[in-house]
Amino acid sequence: MILNLVGNAIKSTHAGRVDVAVSYAATGRDAGRLRVEVSDTGIGIEPARIADVFDKFVQADASTTRIYGGSGLGLSICRDLVRLMDGEIGVDSVPGKGSRFWFTVRCAAVARAEAISKPATTGTNDRARSSSLRLLVAEDNPVNQEIAVVILEAAGHHVDVVENGAEAVAAVRNASYDAILLDVEMPIMDGIAATRDIRGLPGAAARVPIVALTANAMVGDRERFIAAGMDDYVSKPFKSETLSEVLARAIEAKEQRAVVNG
After folding, report:
1. pTM to 2 decimal places
2. How far is 75 from 60, CA to CA, in rounded Å?
3. Hey, how many other C-beta atoms are within 10 angstroms of the C-beta on 141?
4. Hey, which of 35, 57, 144, 152 would disulfide with 72, CB 3.0 to 4.6 Å?
5. Residue 201 and residue 138 share a domain
6. How many helices (H) and strands (E) in the chain?
7. Strand 31-40 vs strand 88-94: parallel, antiparallel, or unpaired?
8. Quick check: is 256 in a domain?
9. Co-location of 136 and 55 in the same domain
10. H or E segment at 253?
11. What are the pLDDT digits (tens) for 152-184?
């Protein structure tokens, strides 16, 4: 939910700042309420649109769909998740001055020692985990870009980043990659169209493993991605272990196809 709200704030703020504030208030010995606020100095929302902003397929500013892409599902999903966690979500906004989205959720209190997580571990018996890969990440959201780069570089991989499908196709024409992580929804050219163009390239470039990145995985999406020429998909927000597993499967499948084709 935080990733979604921060991503939206960045998209609507061409100049200025985006702030994230988190607070916790105990409501009993073993429970409390977490409050998250995401504020920006962006374009704001017209009063007439605020009442509908959490509905499905509604963009606070319709022009953002044309410029940045997106389905308008993100805020609706945030609302549903907040309700499942016995919380509330809302927004205050002034057109031309910015917006403040906030949500609260009920949380169980944990001892400090319990809150210290162990480092994630992964296996070491496949190429995606045991050696450095050259990867291309096509993602228009700056927050998701940074997360992907941090996870992949921490695993020892070299990462190039582009912001849309057209740039991804151009990058594959000019360089050799071990795998591509391709956002499904992007401006200018989306991930499905980019995959079809890449699969139409001559030589080895057409066979590079492609993993879809999607925030809205639904029934039938995997089949749609595979039909478009993708090898696998991972849902956002993704974890390092999941990303490593998906990369391993995609690269293993490519190597198996190469053996079969002789």
Report:
1. 0.56
2. 10
3. 26
4. 57
5. yes
6. 11, 9
7. unpaired
8. yes
9. no
10. helix 240-260
11. 888 889 999 999 999 999 999 999 999 999 998
